Amino acid sequence: MKMKTALLGAACAFAFAPAAMAERGTDGNVKILYSQAVSIMNAYLSSGTKDVEVGSLVLEPLAGFDENGTIYPRLVTEIPTLENGGISEDQTSVTWKIKEGLKWSDGTDFTADDVVFTGAYCMDPAGGCAQLGKFEGVKSVEAIDPLTVKVTFTGPKPNPLVAFVGAESPILQKAQFAACMGAAAPTCTEANFKPHGTGPFMVTDFKVNDSVELAANPNYRDPAKPAFATVSVKGGGDAASAARAVMETGEFDYAWNTQINPELQAQMAAGGKGTFVSGFGTLVERIEMNMTDPSPDLPEGERATAKHPHPILSDVNVRKALSMAIDRNVLVEVGYGVAGRPTCNLVPAPAIYASPNTDCIMQDMDGAKKLLDEAGWTVGADGIREKDGKKFKLLYQTSVNPVRQDFQALIKGWWNELGVDVELKSIDGGVYFGGDAGSPDTFQKFYADVEMYANNFPGTDPEPYVAQYTCDKAPKPESQWQGENINRYCDPAYDALLAELIQTKGTEERAAKVIRLNEMLTKDSYTIVPLVDRGRLSAHSNTLGGVVLNVWDSEMGNVENWYRIK
User: Fold this and answer.
1) How far is Cα 551 from Cα 566, in angstroms, rounded to an integer?
2) d(CA 76, CA 169)
3) Helices in 61-152 by DSSP H: which ranges?
4) The whole model's pTM is what?
């Protein structure tokens, strides 16, 4: 409340004293630390949250979600509705009215043509767009006039405000990205690293998997913002060192995703230099089961693709047994305390979309062993299960993070007790969540048997989130290893139900279908094994004002409102 009052007071001062409008950039530099280094500034070529969020300092969508999950206009005059005519009566189209006078950071006009281009860019089948789920059901995107865009769908779409909404679906400048369509998308390094944007900042220097330097956008639509002249984003390290750099040493102003255990949080908070901010949204730590064979013995281009099913994990009872062996209550206690809740759901919120399923919460080691016995995996003389001469061995990978390494150790112990030989692998977060098609260590490429990470969806309607798991969205060489269906799940019944959801009206009816889709991925198939419904936890300096943690969109979504407390 105090922060909002301070900002309101500042706004009033600007209104009565025109000379005070020249406040942009007067607070110097703000230093932000991401323990997972940024790999690219273009959200369409990365599924990594760190890339999407830092990219949102520059690139913006037509509309976003505020800290309450409420949609609000960013580059448009209003949110389209049935009442104002922005959504057609038959719900087959939505029309956006762009604000007048918007400029790109290079000083050129922002127009409807840029929006049309962005739609074509992501929907190009050769482009490997990492956010294709946002365009599910989109038939066309057309410019009615320079400030009007119409998105038409293949049929009625009760939730039409998905494409170009939220940080994962920003607008690209047509002039800059025109030569970057299709297979050429990842080759446009200058554009991908230093995109022209409409956001409060623009990139001045970009070092892959290291750092990003930004300066206030001189053409930003609010002449009084941002208060900071420059932003320095540093990447790397781990969550504990990131939190310490704010809470104890004061070296940084903001640390993202300070995923540390409760005891360490308390110790750092006692330092008095910073404040932890947290909130529950839709962030779920999960294990993904690879439905394809990641064996290095396979030819490159066939490894981890649908051409070769996984030799062990293709059996649903095997995947179920691995889930049953996990004690989620212990994971929460060790890793999160009150900032975590055990869950069996990929979609934990809003409540109406959450399945009542709690079957996975209680560990059942005896039941898990029985399932493996029945599946033909018998314990050998060395204590490792085997079947048809093949040992039950799994490579289990995740990013470098103290809590995740604790989880790996615990889960390895439980799986060892089942008779599973487990090899652990930890990868630098900047690489793991990067979009480099040439790297063997990205979570999209999934050159492992199981992997662990967390992500969430923007806003409060999970339609685009569950749309990620259709057969066509599996990462593969033809899509530059981009795609949202990380575990390569493919079920025509799932795709058909999703098509129904897209055209379903009524919140309760939509919720029922989302719950069923969620259960198909988790309770029925165990291709996704949810572990913890995680609260977001970040830290900021006590000298940094205007911070509002947003768990429904980009955490960097209101940096234009940050200021230095003097």
Assistant:
1) 28
2) 15
3) 112-123
4) 0.83
3-class secondary structure, 277: strand
CA pair distance 353, 507, nearest whole angstrom: 9
Q: How far apart are CA 90 and CA 107, in angstroms?
A: 39
Six token digits for residue 236: 């790397």
Q: Name the token pair of 32.
A: 């932000």
Break the chain down into helix, strand, coil percent, rounded to 5: 30, 20, 45
Q: Tens digit of pLDDT per residue, the chain (566 long)? A: 333 322 223 333 323 233 333 489 999 999 999 999 999 999 999 989 999 999 999 999 999 999 999 999 999 999 999 999 999 999 999 999 999 999 999 999 999 999 999 999 999 988 889 999 999 999 999 999 999 999 999 999 999 999 999 999 999 999 999 999 999 999 999 999 999 999 999 999 999 999 999 999 999 999 999 999 999 999 988 889 999 999 999 999 999 999 888 888 889 999 889 999 999 999 999 999 999 999 999 998 999 999 999 999 999 999 999 999 999 999 999 998 888 999 999 999 999 999 999 999 999 999 999 999 999 999 999 999 999 999 999 999 999 988 999 999 999 999 999 999 999 999 999 899 987 889 999 999 999 999 999 998 888 999 999 999 999 999 999 888 989 999 999 999 999 999 999 999 988 999 999 999 999 999 999 999 999 999 999 999 999 999 999 999 999 999 999 999 98
Which residue in this structure is represented by tokens 């600007």? 14
Q: Which two tokens stand for residue 306?
A: 């649908």
**341 forms bridges with which residues in the sheet?**
533
Q: Which of 34, 33, 35, 14 is nearest to 23 (CA)?
A: 14
Distance set, CA 196 to CA 41, 108, 189, 208, 488 (Å): 10, 10, 13, 18, 34
Strand partners, 286: 453, 530
Question: What's the CA angle centered on 290, arms 130 and 382, to 5 degrees?
Answer: 155
Taking the CA atoms of 378, 381, 383 and 389 in sequence, report the sign of the dihedral they define.
negative
Q: Please name the helix (run of DSSP H) or strand (run of DSSP E) that holds residue 72, with its range, or none.
A: strand 71-73
What is the phi/psi pair of residue 528, to 5°?
-115, 130
- Structural tokens at position 108: 């050129």
Residue closest to 486 by CA, chosen among 285, 298, 304? 304
Among 127, 136, 195, 193, CA closest to 437? 127
Tokens of 364: 């059942």
Query: Strand, coil or helix: what is 528?
Result: strand
